[in-house]
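Why predict the complex rather than its parts? Because the way molecules touch one another can change local conformation, and only a joint prediction can capture that. The input here totals 310 residues.
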Amino acid sequence: MVAMSLIWSFPPLTASAKPRRVNRYSGVAMASASVNVDNVKVTQGLGDLPKIDLTSVHGSEAEIYLFGGCVTSWKVASKDLLFVRPDAIFDGKKPISGGLPHCFPQFGPGAIQQHGFARNVNWSLVNSENVEGNPVITLELKDTPYSRSMWDYSFLALYKVTLHRNTLSTELRITNTDEKPFSFTTALHTYFRASVTGASVTGLKGCKTLNKNPDPKNPVEGKEERDVVTFPGFVDCVYLDAPEELQLDNGLGDKITIKNTNWSDAVLWNPHLSMEACYKDFVCVENAKIGQVELEHNQSWTATQLLSLA
Ligand code: TA6
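Output of the joint prediction:
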């Protein structure tokens, strides 16, 4: 095993700085020089945003933007299983609409901006490893004056991403580094490439549902009765106490297993005609924590997601 630790972060933010605007980091070359494993590379992505390219010795590939700590691409045998919306903006101001965006410290609408701020700020690369030919990186996010302006807590988020032959795994660990307790909700808002008419998810039968169709502002409680859930129109549904394993048939000939630990809930979303340009090409199957996670000083919460192509 070759392992390497590094701290690569954006310049410190002052109270007067506008963190969301710190979007172009000129030190990509410098940062990449400090990554001494050959299967992790820091490159300039779209909009000149720093991007980390992972390559497994087994041929799979992944791309992660530091902006939002967002995995935007996961390729097995050159086929990308994730989807980035054509309207996604890579300007370091708006969240990247696609891949695996973080929703933290809030899922959905609420006291702060929709889906929280973690998808909307720069994460730092703090570790990279080559484990038997498979790349592993860890990103870090800490509170800043910007995050504190809307959520006044000190926290540490560590996000480990591992690429294997036909799996992509993530581990998110949130630690309360504040003196006072805090609570949060969170999700990995995963966009899968799909043919929406052929896509389906199995494993959700029996779950309690909060169905946001027809009115996202007034979810209706129910129970999932179907063995196989499809996407025949607008879908926006929370599944409470979802199982640790779901199966996605993306309608393109691929079967993807979505395993998790500690992501207790799941969300299915397809916007249908409200995103006419792309709704046919993706489905979101999200691991989520809809109930508040409460952490005291120094306590942590950890959840993992493992995506495997059959
Ligand atoms: O996870 C589903 C959802 O919460 C939907 O209600 C919809 O709003 C979607 O996320 C997209 O949110 P976004 O803020 O990324 O446009």
